[in-house]
Structure to design on (865 residues):
């Protein structure tokens, strides 16, 4: 009799735990999913499913969580707390219990495809101090030669957070209204902050602080080699190991002059449509030191002599062929500018060397909408245009910078 | 239930009923898989210290090594160690032989050559599931459940054949652990494949805790409760406390699971319930450990017997790791240290400190009572100190690493700052491989050199 009671008790404890911590929470979750999910969340495509299987088998979830907790520290770093419906296509779930790398719940849209590929292929070439393993066997020998496996992984990464993003403000409002959740949960899941708080998402039109002029060369060098040298090269020539798989190539700082405004914008917001991420998690004083280091890479060559009539010809060519994108005054704000994934260069805040400018006009810039013009323009016209755009520059360190 | 502890002599005298060959086979398999699992562990640890150190072969990637490390420890090392101990203890606890020696060979073959070895290979080949303590693929799980069923037939039948007379507390833990795991294992491995996302995670949380709490812990406690009276010749301090501890453990442990997902979308009431259970569990462990320590008090446990030394040390680790667990389940602590290396340190204190020391103690105890085996007490003593120091350095190191990571995260600094802060500790952690591997190798050496066993038992049971 005692043993019968014991057996029933023992099995009862198991059943109780299933009921209290498995079945009953499951019902509550189901109810929340019903209340907060968009009507038609996008399931995973075949390629995304395959990518998910690779993510699962490589143990990605053992370093990258996929759940933003209902905590200020998680929400401020990663974005709004994860709702139950956001993982309804996860068989099995990939929540994870350890964060060596950052949470990936909202990874969609954070990085450019070439960045993701290069990072999967050889993480330390882009992120010097990362301990992420390399996955070269997902590629055909080079970071810009992804095999189907790497394409699938990228496709999967681009689903992370996608459905919540697609739900849009209306979806958020409807979910917030319908959710039978506590004040605390409401605060973290539907608070005023961004859906995706990643500091790396490139913002094409975002506001940015004008960085002060820094004198801290040592700090700038340290941060540059930690964060920038992987792609832009140890001496700023755009030739870091990480550059190999990136299209467009990282900027070569030795042949570009930048206004403080341009550097501030690129460092804070990143460069949309390229692998250059935002660095909004680095304090402005440190970004200013990095800007100083970047600026110091520029090598002032002797300016070439002005050929006869070159400015007149340049102005004509520019107005006919360049102004639509780069703007009448070279500010990168032409009428067509917004249609391109990569913003056209603003020549008022960035001045290429003549050689760099010539190369760009002749050959175009791979990985951007900048087309090669050598077949369409004469040699003299190419030269004139390349020369002309350099006249828009209003940069350098001006009065008012650094206040 | 019995009011008095069993005759201690019956626990320590080798009986004709023990399948000595199966004890020996499982003990060898346990130590062999332990060394392989340790190797998986250090290779994974090296990847964090020096990324790319494992080369770029797809089957050696970090995730796969990590999967094989923990599955090897739980199923290969601890599973085999438990079987070795059960073949020694069950006949002595019940006065009956296990069901069948032939069945034992089948279980041995199944466990090692159909589960552990193919499981490892399949994970390396890319077949696995991304669920903690459940990484072997589903096809392997079928055989685990089959093996657990056969183990129930093998080890539980003697208890029933003896009509469950006078069940000693070790017997309760053996029955409880084997039966519970038979249900919990398929739940943890299969339900998250059928229920998506958050709903599946709720069940994963249960299994993460059940694997450690209702498979590993009961069988380790069965060993500790067995070895202490057998080696000291004194009964357990209080049979009442033993049984109180047993029932509280089986009531509370299963209710802990959700503490792995505090601050998640899983309903807050479930989280709070699990945290309350985790707190009470600490109280239960204090009861269990107090009972065990009172039982060894004044027995010169450290010098008297190697098996006793290991299981008593396991008891101390059990106390520390459980109080730590109760504390880190609290929301105020959990929000900082969750997701950090603090928890990895905690796991090692549990599996390498408590569980492995208990398993080593059980193996040594059973080994010394096998006919014609060797045992070198001096080497075992060296093994003991190497393992204690390797473990303590690793746990301390990972705990500090976890605090450093937590500080970096809450400061809002760039993510990589937390990685840079942890790096030196990851490097130190790799070096703890040296004392740990040396300790386990000396353990192996200690069990294969020195004087022949067999004469051990006369002097002791008095």
């Amino acid at each position: 009799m005692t043993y019968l009671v014991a057996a029933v008790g023992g099995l009862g404890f198991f059943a109780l735990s299933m009921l209290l911590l498995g079945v009953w929470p499951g019902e509550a979750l189901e109810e929340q999913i019903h209340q907060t999910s968009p009507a038609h969340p996008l399931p995973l495509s075949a390629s995304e499913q395959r990518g998910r299987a690779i993510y699962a088998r490589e143990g990605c979830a053992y370093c990258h969580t996929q759940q933003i907790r209902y905590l200020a520290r998680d929400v401020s770093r990663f974005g709004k707390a994860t709702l139950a419906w956001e993982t309804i296509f996860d068989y099995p779930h990939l929540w994870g219990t350890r964060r060596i790398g950052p949470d990936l719940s909202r990874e969609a849209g954070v990085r450019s495809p070439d960045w993701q590929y290069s990072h999967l292929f050889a993480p330390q070439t882009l992120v010097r101090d990362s301990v992420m393993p390399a996955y070269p066997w997902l590629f055909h020998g080079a970071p810009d030669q992804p095999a189907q496996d790497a394409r699938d992984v990228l496709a999967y990464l681009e689903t992370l957070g996608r459905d919540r993003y697609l739900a849009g403000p209306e979806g958020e409002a409807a979910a917030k209204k319908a959710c039978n959740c506590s004040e605390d949960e409401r605060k973290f899941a539907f608070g005023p902050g961004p859906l995706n708080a990643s500091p790396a998402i490139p913002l094409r039109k975002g506001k940015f602080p004008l960085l002060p002029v820094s004198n801290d060369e040592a700090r700038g060098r340290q941060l540059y080699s930690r964060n920038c040298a992987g792609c832009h090269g140890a001496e700023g020539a755009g030739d870091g190991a990480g550059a190999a798989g990136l299209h467009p190539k990282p900027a070569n700082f030795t042949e570009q002059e930048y206004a403080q405004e341009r550097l501030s914008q690129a460092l804070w917001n990143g460069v949309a449509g390229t692998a250059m991420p935002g660095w909004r998690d680095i304090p402005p004083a440190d970004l200013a030191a990095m800007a100083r280091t970047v600026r110091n890479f520029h090598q002032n060559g002797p300016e070439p002599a002005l050929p006869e009539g070159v400015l007149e010809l340049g102005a004509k060519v520019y107005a006919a062929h360049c102004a639509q994108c780069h703007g009448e005054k070279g500010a990168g704000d032409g009428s067509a500018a917004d249609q391109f994934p990569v913003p056209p260069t603003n020549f008022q805040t960035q001045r290429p060397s003549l050689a760099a400018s010539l190369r760009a006009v002749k050959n175009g810039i791979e990985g951007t909408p900048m087309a090669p013009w050598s077949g369409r323009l004469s040699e003299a016209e190419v030269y004139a245009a390349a020369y002309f755009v350099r006249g828009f520059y209003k940069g350098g360190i001006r009065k008012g910078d650094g206040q | 239930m019995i009011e008095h502890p069993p005759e201690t002599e019956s626990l320590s005298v080798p009986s004709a009923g023990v399948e000595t060959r199966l004890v020996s086979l499982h003990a060898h398999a346990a130590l062999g898989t332990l060394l392989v699992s340790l190797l998986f562990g250090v290779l994974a640890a090296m990847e964090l210290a020096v990324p790319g150190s494992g080369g770029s072969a797809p089957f050696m990637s970090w995730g796969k090594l990590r999967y094989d490390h923990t599955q090897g420890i739980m199923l290969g090392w601890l599973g085999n160690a438990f079987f070795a101990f059960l073949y020694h203890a069950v006949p002595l606890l019940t006065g009956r032989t296990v069901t069948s020696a032939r069945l034992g060979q089948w279980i041995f073959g199944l466990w090692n050559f159909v589960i552990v070895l193919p499981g490892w290979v399949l994970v390396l080949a890319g077949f696995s599931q991304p669920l903690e303590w459940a990484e072997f693929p589903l096809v392997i799980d079928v055989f685990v459940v089959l093996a657990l069923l056969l183990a129930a037939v093998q080890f539980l039948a003697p208890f029933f054949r003896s009509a469950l007379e006078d069940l000693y507390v070790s017997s309760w833990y053996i029955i409880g652990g084997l039966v519970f795991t038979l249900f919990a294992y398929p739940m943890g491995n299969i339900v998250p494949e059928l229920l998506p996302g958050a709903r599946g995670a709720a069940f994963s949380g249960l299994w993460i805790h059940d694997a450690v709490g209702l498979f590993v812990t009961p069988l380790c406690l069965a060993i500790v409760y067995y070895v202490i009276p057998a080696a000291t010749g004194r009964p357990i301090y209080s049979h009442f406390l033993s049984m109180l501890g047993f029932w509280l453990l089986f009531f509370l442990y299963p209710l802990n699971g959700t503490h792995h997902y505090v601050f998640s979308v899983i309903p807050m009431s479930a989280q709070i319930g699990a945290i309350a259970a985790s707190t009470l569990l600490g109280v239960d462990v204090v009861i269990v450990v107090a009972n065990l320590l009172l039982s060894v008090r004044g027995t010169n446990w450290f010098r008297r017997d190697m098996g006793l030394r290991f299981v008593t040390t396991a008891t101390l680790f059990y106390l520390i790791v459980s109080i730590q667990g109760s504390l880190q389940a609290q929301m105020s602590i959990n929000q900082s240290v969750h997701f950090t290396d603090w928890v990895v340190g905690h796991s090692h204190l549990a599996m390498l400190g408590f569980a492995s020391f208990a398993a080593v103690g059980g193996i040594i105890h059973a080994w010394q009572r096998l006919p014609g085996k060797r045992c070198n007490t001096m080497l075992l003593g060296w093994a003991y100190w190497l393992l204690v120091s390797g473990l303590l350095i690793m746990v301390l190191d990972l705990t500090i690493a976890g605090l450093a990571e937590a500080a970096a995260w809450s400061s809002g600094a760039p993510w990589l700052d937390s990685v840079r802060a942890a790096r030196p500790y990851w490097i130190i952690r790799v070096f703890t491989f040296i004392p740990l591997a040396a300790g386990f190798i000396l353990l192996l050496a200690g069990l294969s050199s020195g004087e022949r066993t067999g004469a051990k038992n006369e002097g002791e049971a008095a």
User: Anything to note?
Assistant: Chain B touches chain A through 83 residues (CB under 8 Å).
